[in-house]
Amino acid sequence: MSYSSDNGDENPGRSNSMFDNANDTKITGGQFNEAGRDMITNVYYPAPRDDVGEVLEWLATLAEYSINHLTASKKMESESDSEMERWLLDDSKYIAWKGEGRILCIQGLPDGIDKTLFMITQDLKQSKEDPTVVSYYYFDDNNDSGPGSSFRGLLTSFLVQMGIQDQMIHHQLKELYKSSEVGNDSSPSNEDLADTLMSITRDLKQKRFKVYMVIEAFDKCEENKEVQEFCKNMADLDVGIAVSKCVDATEMDGDSQYDVELILYDEGEEFND
């Protein structure tokens, strides 16, 4: 997902909030495959430009996630490796995960993880069969924004990616926003944000979308227990969860390909950090 102003400049500078001027900002898609984009209007509803800007500004007050989006976008610009692509796409664990959902852990050395996640996101978005939506989050602990490595940052980022498409807003996100408008003393809890994401996911699944979430650098997360529970709950909805973490080379299987190894968790199996 990228952000651009009306004059075409991507990722305009920001001051104290996500956007310098929300009304001059639009979202361009990229999370749906072609089949999914053809069905977006069955899930999302057109909204006035000001409404989209207001919801984005409100989400930014819950957790500043824009820096994370920029970092994630840069990481996803990695060049592909054709040999690695053939290995990954033919791997039995990856094939099973892609078809059934569940939780797939990618562990290994940083360079191998980056290339693997790039291959996964590209493969999912290029799917020619079922309508598919892919959300991506990177736990970035190298910036001044605390939420970059927090559970709340992940939730707000996924709400932007799954709750808003172009000038359309999912009704569940709109309801959450309305319930938290100015005048309401309480900000939505992490549980509220997660419940809204699950409601959006159920709606997508009912309309026969395949839903995937790619979470990079889980080992940098400040609240790994909360993220683990969230991943389990989403996997129970048949969402494919891909989680990566860096490990020392001595912890890896000697037969690991390209400095990474895949671990596919069975349904109900404990997801360890």
TrEMBL record:
Q: Which UniProt keywords apply?
A: Repeat
Name the domain of life: Eukaryota
Kindly name one Pfam family recorded for this protein.
NPHP3_N
The UniProt regions of compositional bias labelled Polar residues, in chain numbering, are 13-31
What protein name is recorded for this chain?
Nephrocystin 3-like N-terminal domain-containing protein
Residues annotated as signal peptide: none
| Region Disordered, residue ranges | 1-31
Nephrocystin 3-like N-terminal domain mapped to chain residues: 86-234
